[in-house]
Amino acid sequence: MAIVSQSSEYFIFQTSTQYSSSISKQYVNYASNEITSYLDNLEEAFDSLYTNNDFQKFLSVRPDLLSEQAEYIMNFRPIIQNSLKFHPEVLGVLYLDKMGKVYFDSYQTQLDSQFNLYEHPVYRSILNTETTQLSEPHLLDYVLYPNDTVFSFIRPIININSGTIESWIILEIQADKILNLLNYTDYEQAGQLILYHPHTQNMVTNNPLDTNLAQDLWTNLHNKGEQQFVFESNNAEYEATYTQLPNQDWMLVWIAPLSSIKQAVTKSYYLTILIGSASLAIALSIGFSILNGILRPLYFLKKGMQSLGRGQYVPIKLKERHDEIGFLIHSYNQMLEKLNKMEQEVYHSKLKEKERELLQLQAQINPHFLYNTLEAIDSYATRNNGEAIEDMIQAVSKMMRYSIRKDGGWAPLQEEISYIQHFLTIHYYRNGQKVNTSFNIDPLAMNQIVMKQIIQPFVENSLKYGWNPNMSSAEFKLSLTVKVIDNGLHITISDTGTGMSKDVLEPVQGLLQSKGKHIDAFFNIHTGILNVYRRFILAYGEDAYFQIESARGKGTKVEFHIPLKEN
C-alpha cells in the first residue's frame, strides 16, 4: 500500500510538472509574439518616413547646409508628428548619421543642444548597427531635465540613391511600455518573465531577482542547451523556459518555483486517497444483488451506443420498465430520433455558415494599406500634385466599392484584374517607381466568375517580400498568367525578386501540406496568406489545388487551379 501511495504521488508530480512545462512554453511564446508584434507595428507606423523623398534628400545633406536641412525637415516632419500622436509611449524620435547631423522631434521633451550624443556609449555603438535592434534600458539623458528610462528601438536607414547605411532613426520607448508586456496577470502560476541579453548578461524584469538566483539562472542558461530545464538556487528548485525574440539579441525567460506544484500535488494526493476510500466503501455496501437487473439492459444500451458510434441509429427494444434504467433507455431512443433530425439541420446550417465565413474573410481590409494610402495622398497634397491625388482617390474608391459590394463574394475575373491594376497604381504613387509587370490573360477567362480578392493578396506579397525600390525593371518582373485548362482556370503569379526567406516559406508550406489543419504562430501576425487560403478552401474545397514555390535570389511562384463556376 505504501509503495502504491508513493508511486501515485510521484506520477501526479511528474504529470503536473509536464503540464506546467507545456503551459509555460505556450505562455513564453505568447509573450514573445506580443513583444514582436508591438515592435513590428511600431516600425510600420514610421515606414512612410523612410521612403519619403524629402527625408531621403535630407540623408545626403552636409551638416553645414542648415537652410537645406530646415527645408527638408519642414516637409517630412508631419509624418513623424502624426505617428507620435498614435504612440504616446514613444518619448521622441532621434536621427543620427555618420556625417554628424542630429535631429530630434518630440511632443513631450526637448533636446539638450549641449549634449554630445556621439560620445554617449549607447548612441556611439549605433553607428555600427546594420539591423533593427532594441537596446538595453537606459536613462534618456540627452534631453532637458532627464528623468525617464527608455529602450532605444534602432532602425538603420538605407540611402536609396547609394544603397548604403549611414543614417539611423531611434525611437525612444518608455521602459514601462516594455515592462508592461512582461506583466501578464492572467497566468495563474507563480513566477515572472525576464528579458535577458546574453552578450551583456543584463536581466530586465518587473521584480528584480535575488543576486544568487540571477547568477544561478545565468549559469544554467549558458550551460544547458534545452529550452526548458529545472535548476536549484537558494535551496529551492525552479523551472525555466526561454525563447529567442525574433531578429533581436534578447531572450525571453520564464522562471517559476516548483514548490507551488509540490504543495498542490500533496493536497491532490491526500484528496484522491480520501475520495477513493470513500467510493470503495460505498460500492461494497451496495452489494451484488441488484447487478444482474442493471447490467443486462445496460449491455443492450452499450451495443446501441456502439452502433451509434458507427453512424447507425438502432433503437433499443426492451420490455417496458418504470425504473431509472427504463427511463434511461426511453430517453436514449428519443435522443436517436432527435439526432437524426438534428443531423439534417446541421448539414443545412453548415452550408449557411460556410457562406457567412467566406463573406467575413473577404470583407477584411488591411488597415495599414488604407492608412499608408491616405499618408501618400496627404504627402502629394502638400506638394499640390492634383493629378496624383485624383488618380489615388479614384483607385482606392474603386477598390473599396469592389470590396464591399453585395455580390455574394464572387465577381468576373475582369473586375479582379481591374482591382489589381488599381492596387498597382497606388503602389506606384507610394513608392515613386513603376513595377515591371506582365499580364497574360486568356480572353475566354475574362468573364469567368471567381472568388473576389483571390489574386491581389499574392501580388501584394510578391511586392512586399520580393521587390524594393532599388531594383531595376530587369531585376524584378511580376507576371500574372490566367489560362482556361481542363474546364477550369489555371492561375500563376510569379516574380523574379529576392524570394521568400526560410522563416516565411516554411510556415506557408506547412499550411498548404496540412490543407489548413496546421496553423503556425507565424500567421498570428501575417494573416493575409492564411485568410486567402481559408477562403480558397471554403469556396472550392477538394475541386482545386494550390501550391507555392520560392527560392532566395530566384523569386516566387504561386500557382492554383480552380473549377469554372456557372454564371
TrEMBL record:
Transmembrane regions: 269-295
Coiled-coil ranges (or none): none
Record's GO cellular component terms: plasma membrane
Membrane-topology annotation of the record: Multi-pass membrane protein
Every HAMP domain range: 292-344
Keywords, comma-separated and alphabetical: ATP-binding, Cell membrane, Kinase, Membrane, Nucleotide-binding, Phosphoprotein, Transferase, Transmembrane, Transmembrane helix, Two-component regulatory system
Location (main, coarse): membrane
Subcellular location: Cell membrane
PROSITE patterns, per database record: HAMP
InterPro entries membership: Bact_2-comp_sensor_kinase, HAMP_dom, HATPase_C_sf, HATPase_dom, Sig_transdc_His_kin_internal
SUPFAM superfamilies: ATPase domain of HSP90 chaperone/DNA topoisomerase II/histidine kinase, HAMP domain-like
Gene3D superfamilies on file: 6.10.340.10, Histidine kinase-like ATPase, C-terminal domain, PAS domain
Signal peptide limits: none
GO molecular function, one term: ATP binding
Name of the protein: HAMP domain-containing protein
